[in-house]
Amino acid sequence: MAGARGSGGAVPRPFTKMSGAGNDFLVFGSRVGVGPIEAETIRRLCRRGTGVGADGVLFVTASSPGRVTAAYYNADGGEARFCANGTRCAARFAALRLEASSILDVETGWGAVGAKVHADGRVTLRLPAPVGPTSPAPTFDPHEQLLERSGAAVSVGVPHLVVFTSGRTPVDELDLPALAPRLRFHPALPEGANVHFVEAEGRSRLKLRSWERGVEGETLSCGSGAVATAVVAALAGRATPPVALRTRSGEELVVDFRLEGDAATDVTLTGDARITFEGTWNEELL
User: Fold this and answer.
1) Average of per-residue pLDDT values in the chain
2) Over the range 195-207, which residues count as b (16 or more CB within 10 Å of their CB) and which as e?
3) Which domains does the chain have, with CATH numbers?
């Protein structure tokens, strides 16, 4: 992109690399206006192999000890309203690096999300709105025999599609690059969706694999997808909260809530949010 090489726009050089249950992010402790140059820098930073590598970027700033703002951008440089694992990482980053309180509100594009940073590195989010199915259940072609014939569309700040396996093949053995893109762009979902493939491991224990928009590939974890999956499972009578979800990384996320009719209220998400390393990116990346 013209003008990007050697500048990077307003993206700061120092960064903190964080992981939320395997979802990895580059975190910057400043507010940045993202135009075409910055979006290209984000794409290059997130690219694995030639960049630092990440599922997305967070710009985190504190307005008071109890309130911070987290702007989230996917690996493709596009802004997203909400990323649950990213918000957990933003909360812990703020508590460790910005002198924020361990109990705080994180302002996201979806709204203010309550967060509690635990001493052991876990973070619990309290979501700002009820969660439930948002449209008629999308259906799939008969040849999709590895999956159930319909899924559930759910919004958790961003759109999700939850699909249970048919039981013929373990979720770990599914060929997501062959299955997921068709569902990610399902015609019943005008905005597209993150797609989650689910297998029950026991009562209130689920195994989850996620294919995310903006990454256009499988990620090791998706926090808002875990919330969507847990709520769908409970509404279908397949789980009772709290629901534990084992992600592709092997890390576990726990979703708790109360069912009221066809929606979940008082929704919380708990999981790890760890700093993996800190560094400074070099202009040769551009």
Assistant:
1) 92
2) bbbbbbeeebebb
3) 14-127+273-285 (3.10.310.10), 152-272 (3.10.310.10)
